[in-house]
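idk why but the lab printer keeps eating my pages so im just putting this in chat instead. protein + uracil:
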Amino acid sequence: MDEQNLSTDHVRLAVIQQLEGLRRAGVTHWKRIDPIEPSKSVVTPQAPTQKSVPQAPTGNLTEKSSSTTVSAVAANIDSQSRRPFELESSPLAKKKIAPLPIIPNQFQPLDLPLADRIAGLAALAERVKSCTRCQELASTRTQTVFGVGNPEAKIVFVGEAPGADEDAQGEPFVGRAGQLLNDIIKACRIRREDLYICNVLRCRPPGNRLPAPDEAANCREFLDGQLAHVNPEYIVCWGACAAQNLLGSTETIGKLRRQFFTYGRAKVLCTYHPAYLMRNPAAKKDVWEDMKMLFLDMGIDLTAKTK
Ligand code: URA
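predcted complex ->
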């Protein structure tokens, strides 16, 4: 029975994560399927799977008359049992089996042709330009800083938030930290244009303060939208803010580095922020170790001699 409860918990958690991801991708309603009387039932009702779930909002999904909200479905699943997040009281905790990593958000890979990626990202950038979800940021920014790079990049870099230089120029990582990031990119023998670069926030926090949790939450739809369109194989989180926000973790960056996590279909590697490296140059060797690990996973040995 415990085994069964255990797998039910896993399925429940996976379904909630999937629904949460859909909600963040903009899907607000779910087509209602009328209950089938047991005697007439020909198929076993199934939880939505990655394949059967639409990847983007469609007309059907937003028709209120025949639909129920994604949040309501998630809440319903959640309320049918213990909350899976309360691991203390779950059989997982009792059995001392490591729980599934809890990732609060997921991007839904869109796997689009290039033209659609460009159009989708441009549409998202337009929405960001007029975004006023965070009143303080919207009223103090010079402009929004959406993201730059290759819409078909294999690797997406995620930083914290625009600083003064980025706010002035409208592009991420163009200030001093950006110069160091460029050096790291060069050392990895790739070009900045090969990557896609964005941040947890698309507006500069005044005084370069840390992004507040509600600001990160407000901007998450845009980050997930960018990830969904670019659909990278790898995500590098630069610094604790990016790592903790993306993975929904409170661990230190020191603990999060040196291992791969998954987010959507991407492998995630976390490392120190370039601004931290400027204050602590001794940590550059750690970032180099992380880069070697990332590229080795792609089959590239960064220590190999070049001709
Ligand atoms: N630091 C970041 O995290 N992002 C930028 O875009 C610039 C500096």
